Structures are given as structure tokens and as C-alpha cells.
Amino acid sequence: MSTKPKLVISSGAGISAESGVSTFRDAGGLWENYPVMDVCSADGFARNPALVHQFYNERRKALLGCKPNAAHKGLVELEKWYDVYVITQNVDDLHERAGSSKILHLHGELMKVRSTRDDTHIYTLDEEHLETSPETRDKYGDPVRPHIVFFQEAVPNIERAIEWTEQADIFAVIGTSLAVYPAAGLLNYVRPGVPVYYIDPRPAPVPGNVHVISDPATVGVAKLIELLRPHEM
Length: 233
Description:
By secondary structure, this protein is of the alpha/beta class. Helix content is 28%, strand content 19%. The chain has a six-stranded parallel sheet, with helices on both faces. The two termini are 27 Å apart.
């Protein structure tokens, strides 16, 4: 068992925006170019799976040109002093590529697909095999779909995210509008008295006991490191 304090991070699109990953909700974001319910909903996938496959093929190609930024890497640095758990709403793999050791994806993973007939059959794509289509089959002969939690679908990892949050000795929210549920509700599961930090250049209203850092993720995480770094006497 780790004796380090447990630092739980809830990250959103803002932590990856500085890496060049297109966000959905901001001005100029992906939802202005695609009707969201066409490409990110269970109904949309049932209605036009080819469009949904194409959309995520494009997202994967774009992700290849992105690298983890100083905010992703800063969370890895915090592992020197803390048992760091990252709960992310992001579907990119930048936390993994930065080297974080404990990551929970609430909304799925862009670089994975899964069987439409058995959701335990999950496959990781590589640079040579980024594209899928309604004709793509897995080794069992079953069609595949993006390993993404669509609108109208349950968030299967939310229970584990709540458990991690309830166990936090410190909780930090980075780069999220706090508008997407159930992820936004995690704040409600932080134990009383646990320090909470919120990093976002345009922070949403939060309770007065939350320490707000109104900066982009790279700047905000650097400040968080300074605040949380053990200072020797």
C-alpha cells in the first residue's frame, strides 16, 4: 500500500487544448462543424455508422500530431510526492503518453475500438491502422465501433471515479467547464475538509472553499506543483 497522500485529478478538454486537441464546446470547436447528435450519440451511430466512423477516423489522425504538454507532464511530476489518480473526460491518450500511471477514462478512448456484439472485446489501434468503417470486423467476425461513450449511453466508469474521489486527500479539477455530467458531479463526493483546487482560464462558479487558479492548464499546473510540493524545513 502507498503511504503517499492520495491526489485525485479530474481533467477535461482544457488540459489537452494547449496540445492542439480540438475541444468540442469552445468557439470554433468540433460541434460547430458537426451536428453533435449525428456523430456522438447512440442514435446517430445507429442511423449513420459510416459518418461516425469517419468522424473518429479524423479525430485519430489529428491526435497523432499532438503531444503531451507541460500540464500532462506536471501531473507525472506530482507522482514523486503523491499517489496520483487521473480521472479524465478526455478520449485522447495524452495522459498515457506523458507517463501518468493511474488513469480512468470516463468517456472512452479514441485510440480503441470495441466489438458491437461483446463490449469486453476491446482493441487498441496503432498508427498504421487508424481507420475503421462499418465493414471493419474483429477476429471473431464481429463489427466494431469507436470505444467512446456516446450521448444516450451510461458512463460505465463513473462508480470507480466516485470511489477514487471519496478516497482523495487532495482533489484538483483541471480544464473543465463543470458543465458535463456525471463528471461535474464528482466535486460532491469530495470529503469535507479535503483541499480542492480548480484550474481553468474561465472558471465556472464554485463553492468558496475551492482554491481557484484562473489560468490555462500549463500555467495552472505549474502553480499547483508549487503549492503542493513538500517544502523542506
